[in-house]
Amino acid sequence: MSIWESLRTAWQSIFANKLRSSLTMLGIVIGVCAVVLLVALGQGFQTSMTKTFNDMGASALYISSAPSKTVVGGIRPLTNEDVTALQDKNLVPAVSVVSPTRTNRGTASYGNNNASESLMGIMPVITKIRNYKMDQGRFLTDQDVTNRANVVVLGWQAEIDLFGAQAPGTTSPIGTYIRISGMKFQVVGTCQKFGGFAGDSYILMPLTTMQSKITGGDVVQQIGILASKPDQVDTAIAQVTAVLRARHFIRTVAGAADDFSITDMRETLNSMEATLAAFSLFMGAVGAISLIVGGIGIMNIMLVSVTERTREIGIRKAIGARRRDILIQFLIEAAALSLTGGLIGLGLAVGVAHAMGQITLGQTQVTPEISYSIVFIALGVSIGTGLLSGTYPAFRAGGLDPIESLRHE
């Protein structure tokens, strides 16, 4: 019997028992749909988080003061003088961008609307590290910093909090004044939605304005830096560490800990990607349980089919069918059942993914991503499940004695 004849016979057998075949495929349909959807959600979340990290500066280094409990003898806070030292090309030639930030929680108001927002004192150079996309107006300028101007740029959520729930951009707040700590600040720009775990409830203002009019002093909470070249990141870390240790009078003797920490966003991103990959694998494994259940269903129904068709098998062998022909026929039937279920499950998963569109997980917008690799893996696994599940019934059918089979009632 040729392969095509076996395929034709397999499809005839499946369609002859439509209800039974449908119920048998149900486990495969649910399993493939679950695996594809869960893996697609995992990949979509990983893509969204990677984009968020890139917007935040995936290749940047962030310097902050170390927790006091980790440093013997207290810590020296990061200051404007530290920033100036790091901007000196003679001291740190491997660094190309230095961007200090001072953050403070404060209440902003406009009309009858009051909102608690994250106030961020920044320098315009921060745009070389973080990807702030303007919605309306302009970003902060060096002139704003020099003049200690009372100007602000609103984050996406901050604009909604202060100017109402209408879609940002429909009513322009540019040129209006809001109050922060009793002082008037002019809105010169608004940002598009940033998303991610950082959120969008922020108000940007010049660092000099923040330090002179809100927090006082010259302390900065964080300094973002970029290396001159991608292959000079480790050199930049070494140079920055040497400069700050010297400025903070940290002795070079063994055991003298730094009173600052340097976070390499590359390491954070790699760690996050490894975690998300493991999470996607776990979700795929959970969905695979349904495939195992479906495979057991196929094995069960194929065993029933062997019993029902024992006399048919005897007749086939009596007229010359070899054991291999019977084996191939039942394997093809099992694979056809599983493949059909896989195709239905895949189509269902694609439809559900498109119907879901973009979903929100916390502060992160996630769009399920169904890639070609997922499609091929899902179909391959469904066919493999059918073949494995049909192996024992197929061998049992092929091993039947033709004489005893013909006597079977």
Describe this entry's structure for a reader.
The two termini are 25 Å apart. With 409 residues, the chain is α+β, with helices and mostly antiparallel strands. It contains twelve helices and twelve strands.
Coarse morphology? elongated
- The helical percent reads 40-55%
CA(first)-CA(last) distance: 25 Å
Overall number of structural domains: 2
Oligomer: single chain
The low-confidence runs, each spanning 5 or more residues with pLDDT under 50, are: none
- Beta fraction of the residues? 15-25%
Describe the structure concisely.
With 409 residues, the protein is an alpha+beta fold. It contains twelve helices and twelve strands.
Topology:
Blueprint: H1 3-16, H2 18-56, E1 61-65, H3 80-86, E2 95-110, E3 113-122, E4 134-137, H4 142-147, E5 151-154, H5 156-163, E6 177-180, E7 183-191, E8 202-206, H6 207-215, E9 222-227, H7 233-247, E10 260-264, H8 265-308, H9 310-318, H10 323-356, E11 359-361, E12 364-366, H11 372-398, H12 402-407
Parallel strand pairs: 3-8, 5-7
Antiparallel strand pairs: 1-9, 1-10, 2-3, 2-6, 2-9, 4-7, 5-8, 6-7, 11-12
Helix pairs in contact: 1-10, 2-8, 2-10, 2-11, 8-10, 8-11, 10-11
List the keywords.
409 residues; alpha+beta; 2 domains; six-stranded mixed beta barrel; two-stranded antiparallel sheet; 53% helix; 18% strand; elongated
